[in-house]
Amino acid sequence: QVQLVESGGGLVQAGGSLKLSCAASSSGSRFSINAMGWYRQAPGKERQLVATVSSGGTTNYADSVLGRFTISRDNAKNTMYLQMNSLKPEDTAVYYCNAAVIRTGVTGRQYYYDSWGQGTQVTVSS
What we know:
Number of helices: 0
Oligomer: single chain
Shape: elongated
Strand content: over 45%
Largest sheet: 7 strands, mixed
């Protein structure tokens, strides 16, 4: 019912920058989004948290990206962003968008679930 689509990935040299976007859309149900976050997964490794942002704009970052990455969101556009600066080869991974979705049913009751995007590849060369 809610789809997340990431964009903005690509190939960049170490020290370069990329900006990722995650657009949320609904197939018909009423919904809102609480927290959103970016995760990444390198080959052979577990998916790990990169950064999160609450509906009110409170942010949280993994130590490995603190000071280099900036997460933000535009609630009016249902879009989240990740500005990545000073990229390092170890940042190479598939980056996934995550959203905590609140769906409102026909009776007004609310249901909570997580939604994930398909991922976008970020490759940083040395």
